[in-house]
Each structure stands twice: as C-alpha cells, then as structure tokens.
Specification:
About 35% of the residues lie in helices and about 20% in strands. The chain contains three helices and five strands, in the order ββββαβαα. Helix 1 packs across helix 2. The longest helix is centred in the last third of the chain and has 22 residues. It is elongated, with a radius of gyration of 28 Å.
C-alpha cells in the first residue's frame, strides 16, 4: 500500500499503515462467500512521527472507540462490493479523521454582559407589552 497523502506537507508513511482483507457481510450473493472485499487499515498512532503530539491527542479523542490497546487506529470499510473501492473508502475515512484532528479546537466562549442599550430596549419592550395587556384588561375603548 502507498503512503497516505493527508494534505500538502503531511504524508503518513507506508510503514505506519497496514492493510488486511477479509470476507465482507451484507449483499453480494454467492460472490460474498468467495471474495475478500472488506478492508481494515491499521494506523500505528503511538509510533507515528508524522503527527504532532497535540494532533495525536485530538485524534485519540475523536476516534477513542477505534483505537486498540496497542495504540493502533483501526478503520474498516465494507461499503462496496469491490476491494479497491473499499480500500479507497477506508483511506479517505482515515484522511478525513486526521484532517479533523489537525483542525485547532474552537476557542472557548467568553461570557459577556448585555450592554446598557440592550437592557433599556428590553425593558422598554416589556413596558409596551405590559401596557398593551393592561389596556385589554380594562376593557378598552372599542
């Protein structure tokens, strides 16, 4: 298998990836019992030197249920009936997961207080609403 190009300047070396094929479940008729179309890619996350430690930590948090005790990230694809399409699909899934981990986390929101003008507008609106209700309660002039 070739190295995985994540984006310009970031390539996961072939040595950090391993691929295994097995028989897939689901539709496919008799062919499903003969052909190994299911693809399993294992990415040696702990031993990887391609990613920065912060990106590794975010990837570990994003894909917590896909990481083995040995520190390998496992991506499985059996969406298609052909091995090459499933291999491409699994590689794309891994690429997207790594790209998501490379994105910096959003800055935490700092709570702000409402401005004086917004407070005054809110109170004025409440007073108008109250006056409208009072007018209705009094019977009004029809």
């Amino acid at each position: 298998m070739d190295a995985l190009i994540v984006r310009h300047g970031l390539v996961i070396p072939e040595a950090e990836l391993s691929v295994a094929f097995s028989r897939s479940g689901g539709p496919g008729g008799q062919n499903v019992n003969k052909v190994e179309t299911r693809v399993e890619i294992r990415y040696a996350l702990d031993r990887s030197e391609a990613l920065a430690p912060a990106a590794k930590a975010r990837l570990r948090a994003l894909a917590a249920n896909r990481i083995t005790k040995e520190g390998e990230l496992v991506i499985v694809s059996q969406r298609y009936r052909s091995q090459p399409r499933n291999l491409d699909d699994a590689r794309e899934l891994l690429r997207e997961l790594i790209l998501e981990a490379l994105r910096p986390p959003p800055r935490p929101r700092r709570p702000t207080k409402p401005s004086r003008g917004s407070k005054e507008r809110r109170l004025k609106e409440k007073a108008l609403h109250s006056a409208k209700k009072q007018f209705r309660r009094a019977g009004g002039d029809d």
